[in-house]
Amino acid sequence: MTKKIVVTGMGASSPLGGTAPDSWAGLLAGTSGARALEHDWVAKYELPVTFAAEAKVRPEEVLERPVAKRLDPSSQFALISAMEAWEDAGRPEVAPERLGVDYATGIGGVWTLLDAWDTLRERGPRRVLPMTVPMLMPNAASAAVSMHFEARAFARTVASACASSTESIVNAYEHLQAGLADVIIAGGTESAIHPITVASFSSMQALSRRNDSPETASRPYSVDRDGFVMGEGAASLVLETEEHALARGARIYAELAGGGVTADSYHITANDPEGRGASRAVHIALERAGAVPDDVTHINAHATSTPVGDPSEYVALREVFGERVHDIPVSATKASTGHLLGGTGALEAVFSILAIRDRKAPPTINITEMDPAIPLKVVGEPQPLGEGAQLVISNSFGFGGHNAVAAFRSYGD
């Protein structure tokens, strides 16, 4: 029998704020987290892109030094957001064997890896820290969260590029449906604003080069968009079965109604221009939610602000919704946050849930002129979603042809 899976806690550390409420407030205010990078290495390596959307609150400002010291920044962000989500959920009482972790990263501990390489070259092997590998491994964030909360049901890791954390949320949905846990901490993290990643993304012409105007550089759907803006941070959800949540008297934000994961098998970096895998992921999410396309009231789009990616998502959405796609309010929140890579889906899940709670679609900033090839109803100012049941889908698509979609429904309507 299908169970209801509900969201009872949320946390986030993003370019807009150090908590989920602060990030949401910054988003609704139409602010941008993008800024010029104030690091010596920008000039040292003559990087063609000199800005990014760094987290507004550094993790070392939140975590105790002994804890932060043994974690890569990506794991630090993960732990901070998970701690916030757990507190927000009211510290659920659950047996360790019934508490699981589904966490994600797109790249992993890039700073730890490359700092260790610098140490090896400059100071020799004896100076490389013994904790280097445990800090850089992709499952480090999941392990850190599971150990902090003594989660012993499982601690699983997803690495599917920019679809990673939405896929981790869909996995959590499946694991709760299967009865493998009663409560799961799910989410994703990334801290990869490093000279090598900036140089690599720049070389593939993926990043915006508006160095003179970082705040307006990320402009999804705008006719003059020229690439995405790198971001960093993490977001976490506490998910549990409705039965468990009601038994402990938990506040319920929304229902995680369904999710879909597919693969394009098309190209390592490019989306399928026909959007076939993406549209299938939406169909699967809606089918699992017991919903039809006409039930969807809002879309949080992947929309990275790239010339190729934005149109392919529109093609996928048009296949699912037909002409009605032009009437559904669409938010492209990377215009404000930048692209958190493996952390972006979880952050956008938080935004989708808060849109349901507040019945308000967040704005998409920086559009100078809508691309006529993408005639979506993009939200320019915070827009009321109206009365009645809400069903919001959140899309994430990643390098390697990974597609993941989560569907959230208002609870109790």
Q: Structural class, please? A: alpha/beta
Count the E strands: 15
The CATH class, by name, is: Alpha Beta
CATH-wise, what's the superfamily?
Answer: Thiolase/Chalcone synthase
Uncertain stretches? none
Q: How would you classify the quaternary structure?
A: single chain
The SSE string, one letter per element, is EHEHEHHEHHHEHEHEHEHEHEHHEEEEE
Helix content: 25-40%
- Just name the CATH architecture: 3-Layer(aba) Sandwich
- Morphology call: globular
Q: Report the sheet with the most strands, covering strand number, pairing sense and barrel closure.
A: 11 strands, mixed
Can you count the helices?
14
Output the strand order for the largest sheet.
5-4-6-7-1-8-15-14-9-10-12
- CATH fold annotation: Peroxisomal Thiolase, Chain A, domain 1
Compute the separation of the termini in Å: 21 Å
Radius of gyration: 20 Å
Number of domains: 1
Descriptive key words:
413 residues; alpha/beta; Peroxisomal Thiolase, Chain A, domain 1; eleven-stranded mixed beta sheet; two-stranded antiparallel sheet; 14 helices; 15 strands; 33% helix; 19% strand; globular
Mind sketching the topology for me?
Blueprint: E1 5-13, H1 20-28, E2 35-36, H2 40-44, E3 51-52, H3 65-69, H4 73-88, E4 99-105, H5 110-123, H6 132-136, H7 140-149, E5 154-158, H8 164-177, E6 183-190, H9 195-203, E7 233-241, H10 242-247, E8 254-263, H11 276-288, E9 298-300, H12 309-321, E10 329-331, H13 334-337, H14 344-358, E11 360-361, E12 377-378, E13 383-384, E14 391-398, E15 402-409
Parallel strand pairs: 4-5, 4-6, 9-10, 9-14, 10-12
Antiparallel strand pairs: 1-7, 1-8, 2-3, 6-7, 8-15, 11-13, 14-15
Helix pairs in contact: 4-7, 8-14, 11-12
